[in-house]
Amino acid sequence: MSQTPSGQPGDKAGNSLEEQSALLEQLFNNAPLPIQRCSIEGQILRANQASEEVFGYTCEEMRGRFVDDLFAAPDTYDEAVKNTRDVLEGKTVFFEGRRRRKNGEAIYVKGTAFPIVLKGVQIGTYSIYTDQTAVKAAEIRLSQSEERYRSLVDDIPAMICAFDDRGILSFVNREFCTFFSLPAENLLGTSLLRFIPPEHHPAIVSHLISLSETKPVITTEIPTLPPGSAPRWHRWTVRLVSERENGRRLFRAAGQDITDSRLVQTTLAENLAAMERTFSEAIEVLASATDAKDPYTAEHQRRVARLSAAMAEQLGYDSAFIRGVEQAAMVHDIGKIEIPGEILSKPGRLSPLEFELIKGHSRAGAKILEKIHLPWPLHTIVAQHHERLDGSGYPDGLSGRQILPEARIIAVADIVEAMSSYRPYRPALGIGAALDEILRLRAEALDEDCVDCCVSLFLKKGYSLDG
Asked: Do residues 48 and 128 make contact, with C-beta atoms less than 8 angstroms apart?
C-alpha cells in the first residue's frame, strides 16, 4: 500500500500559495481604504468593504460597472476617463478630485491606480482611494477665512505689514501699497528699513530687540520716506508674533500717517510758546511800571519772584506751576501804584489810616490783573498773598485751604525778602532775623511746608537773595 510522503516540496509550494492567496484576500477585504480591481476594459470586478462604506454601493452593485461611469462627478468625468485610459495602457496614475456617492453626494478623494501584470501581460488594474472630503472642507474653510481676513485687513484704513528681524517684508495690505505707491510684488522680500531715514535705524532695531513674550508690543513715532514725496511721520504699533525654526523673529505692525496731527501739535505748541512769551513780556512791563513809582517795590518783586520759583521747584511742583507762581510774584505788589508815593517812601511809622491804604494794594493789584486771562489764577494769587492760615491776614481774612498754594509760597518769600532788605523807614534786618520770623509764624500763620522749604534753601542749599 503506497503512501504520499508528507512534507514534500510540491505540497509545501501548494500550501504557501494558498496561504498567500488567503492573506491577500484578507488584506483586500479588510483594508481601511477603498480598493477596487478592474478588468482590462475598466469594469469593476471586485470591491472591498471600505469601498461600500465610502461610495455607498454594494459590491454587487459595483461589479461589472465602468468605474468612471459609477464614481466620476460631471465636472471631473473627462479627467477621470483619461486617468483610467492611462492605467489600462500600463501607466501608474496618481489622481485627486471630486467623486460622487450613490446618493449623489460629492466627496473629494486622492488615490493611485496601477496595472496588474501577470507573466508580463496586463490582466487588469487596481485602484486605491483615500477619502479627503473632511480635509478638503477644512482647506476650503481655511482659505475662506484667510480671504475674509485679507479683505478685512485690506479694508482697514491703516498700513498693515509683517516682517522679520532683518526688516524683510512678508506681508503688506492695500493701504501700505497705496501709501508707498508700489505693488505688493515690489515690496515683499524687500527691507522695510529702506523707507526709514538711516539715522533712525538704530532706534528701530533697539525697539525690536526689546520685544519679548512678556512685553510683546511697542508703539513708536518715526519718519518715513515714501518714494518721490516729502518725509511723513507715522505712528507704528509693532507686535512680536513668533520665532521661526531658523531663529528669525516675526513681527506684525500697524501704522498711521500722523504728519498732519504732528503739524497741528507743533503749530499749537509754537502758538502757546508765543502766547506765553507775550504774557511774560506783559508781566515784565507791569512789574516795571512800579519802578517810576517806587524802585524799592520793583526790586522787591523781582527778588520775591526768584525765591518763590526756587521754593516751588524745591517743593516738587511742575514747570507750569513754577512759571505761574513766579509771574504772580513778579506783580504781587502791582497795586501799590495806586498808593501815594509819599506814603510808600515815608521814613517814619505809618498812621492807622496810611496802613489801611497800604493794605488796599492786594485788592487793587487783583483788580488791575483780573482782565488778564492765563492758565493760572494770576489775580487771585495776587489778592491772597497777604492772607494767613489762621485768618489774621488781609484783605478778606481767608484761612486754611481757602488760600491758594501759590499765595502761600509768595507769603513766605515776601516776608523773607522784605525783612532782609533795606527800606526807607528802617535798615535791613538780615536773613537770620527773617528766617526766625517765618519759623515763629510756621504752621499758624504760614504754611509749614513752605517755611521748611525756604529755610532749607538758605541754610542747606546756599540760596542767596542776591542771586
From this structure: no
- CA-nearest of 441, 429, 445, 439 to 459 is 439
**Pairing, β 159-164 against β 169-172:** antiparallel
User: What CA–CA distance (Å, rounded) separates 241 from 250?
Assistant: 5
Tell me how crowded residue 267 is: count the other CB atoms within 10 A of its CB.
10
Cβ–Cβ < 8 Å for 229, 209:
no
Q: Are 167 and 192 in contact (CB under 8 A)?
A: yes
Cα(135)–Cα(128) distance, integer angstroms: 18
Location of C-alpha cell 483610467? 84
**Residues present in the chain in total:** 467
Rounded Cα distance between 220 and 206, Å, is: 12
Cell numbers representing residue 323 in the block: 512759571
What is the spatial distance between Cα 438 and Cα 200, in angstroms, rounded to a whole number?
A: 54
Cα 31 to Cα 54: distance, rounded to the nearest angstrom: 13
Q: What is the pLDDT of residue 116?
A: 92
Joined together, the cell numbers standing for residue 413 give 518769600
CA nearest to 409, candidates 299, 311, 334, 287:
311
Q: What is the model's pLDDT at position 174?
A: 87
Per-residue b or e along 325-359, where b marks 16 or more CB atoms closer than 10 Å to that residue's CB: bbbbbbbbbbbbbebeeebbeeeeeeeeebeebbe
Please write the tens of the pLDDT for every residue from 194-214. Answer: 999 999 999 989 999 999 888
Amino acid at 114: F
Cα–Cα–Cα angle for 42, 43, 47, rounded to 5 degrees: 115
CA 384 to the chain's CA centroid: 46
- Rounded to the nearest 5°, which phi and psi values hold at 253? -140, 145
Of all residues in the chain, what percent carry a pLDDT higher than 90?
A: 48
* Rounded distance between C-alpha atoms, residue 351 and residue 341, angstroms: 15
Gap between the Cα atoms of 13 and 21, Å rounded:
12
> Which one is predicted more confidently, 403 or 13?
403
Lowest-pLDDT range of 37-51, 144-158, 386-400: 144-158
pTM greater than 0.70: no
Whole-number pLDDT of residue 228? 78
Q: Is the dihedral of CA 232, 238, 244, 247 positive or negative?
A: positive
Q: How much is the mean pLDDT over the chain? A: 85
